[in-house]
Write a structure and sequence with these properties.
heterodimer, A: about 240 residues, Jelly Rolls, 2 domains, 4-stranded antiparallel beta sheet, 8 helices, 12 strands, globular, B: about 110 residues, mainly alpha, about 60% helix
């Protein structure tokens, strides 16, 4: 959260203390389901998770990917029931922050409140970027845009090694996020690989030409705001 | 872990990677029959190949899938197929059609 707003050492200590209760969940485990009464807040410490909605015929729309450092449902205390579900995509270590502690931090620590508000703004802007993708980008642009976003986010939580990072998302999962079938995602990934801009294989994304990938996607990282903890290098990496 | 196992077996770049398990919380759906699933994947791959090689336009691919959707309804009704079963098939076809539509110029359909 300190990427979003400056936190004092005391604030950081309080947040670390709030995240003491951590559990490891297997892949594909619901942390909370649509309709459930909100429980503790979640902080992703390790692994990947997603927010999703299920449609009546059983298909799934993923609405966000969550990676280490991401928080979710810190705001859910104002709601009686979840309007979406959250599930792990890989084995994940999750901190469960008791609702009372969370509420107390938000009411008594202004810097944490600002960081939380910043976090919410980034989440909303990311969601807007996804709506633009789904509404106005073609399949290649959608995939390229998502890869750029995940790369920037991963880099800023130091999950990248050069131009490579572990991206354990199946083509089905990517398709469920982008409104494409797994076959279509497969064909698009093939095109991007052949064009020499990126490769997604063996659960790892290697971006070989970030400027070109960003150009293909029409990617502008401004919507990630606080997630750009290393803003200047990020913008340079995006070819600007 | 299922996911770890899946990626341990994970394949060359061009293979389709899928979730072998329904998303947690999903309504139970009948496990697809092997022939039907393979046929559907193969058909969709072929359609994409035809579009990429410009033997079909994307709009024609949309049209092909849409025709299959319409016919599916008629066949299911004629065969007395259960509504749930028909909806499962339709969901697959509609998803495929929507996916092709992503590459249509906006406002062209």
């Amino acid at each position: 959260m300190s990427a979003h707003a400056p936190l004092s050492p005391e604030d950081v200590g309080l947040l670390i203390a709030a995240c003491q209760n951590q559990r490891v969940f297997p892949a594909r485990t619901d942390l909370i389901r649509e309709g459930d009464r909100p429980g503790p807040g979640f902080v992703i410490m390790q692994g990947w998770a997603c927010r999703y909605k299920l449609l009546p015929e059983g298909t799934r729309q993923i609405t966000a990917f969550l990676m280490p450092g991401d928080t979710c449902d810190l705001h859910a205390s104002v709601s009686d029931a979840m309007e979406h579900s959250i599930a792990t995509l890989t084995a994940a270590r999750i901190a469960l922050v008791p609702r009372g502690i969370l509420q107390n931090l938000l009411e008594t620590r202004p810097a944490i409140t600002r960081a939380y508000q910043w976090n919410q703004m980034v989440n909303e802007d990311t969601l807007r970027a996804w709506i633009v993708s789904m509404g106005r980008r073609n399949s290649v642009q959608r995939v390229a845009h998502l890869m750029c976003e995940l790369y920037v986010r991963a880099r800023n939580v130091r999950m990248t090694e050069g131009d490579r990072f572990e991206l354990p998302l199946t083509q089905t999962v990517i398709g469920d996020a982008l409104g494409l079938t797994p076959i279509h995602v497969n064909r698009v990934l093939r095109k991007l690989r052949i064009s020499g801009v990126m490769t997604l294989d063996q659960g790892a994304l290697v971006i070989t030409d970030i400027s070109n990938l960003a150009a293909v996607a029409g990617f502008d990282d401004n919507y990630l705001h606080g997630r750009i903890a290393l803003a200047s290098p990020g913008r340079r990496a995006m070819g600007r | 872990m299922g996911e770890d196992r899946h990626f341990a077996q994970s394949p060359k770049s061009d293979r389709v990677t899928q979730d072998p398990i329904q998303p947690a919380g999903a309504r139970p759906v009948a496990e697809p029959d092997a022939h039907g699933q393979a046929a559907l994947l193969l058909t969709e791959s072929l359609l994409h190949m035809l579009v990429e090689s410009r033997r079909l336009t994307n709009a024609q691919a949309v049209d092909v899938v849409h025709s299959a959707t319409v016919v599916k309804v008629e066949v299911a009704e004629a065969a007395g197929e259960s509504t749930n079963r028909m909806l499962e098939s339709l969901a697959l076809l509609i998803r495929m059609e929507d996916s092709f539509r992503a590459d249509e110029p906006f406002g062209s359909l």
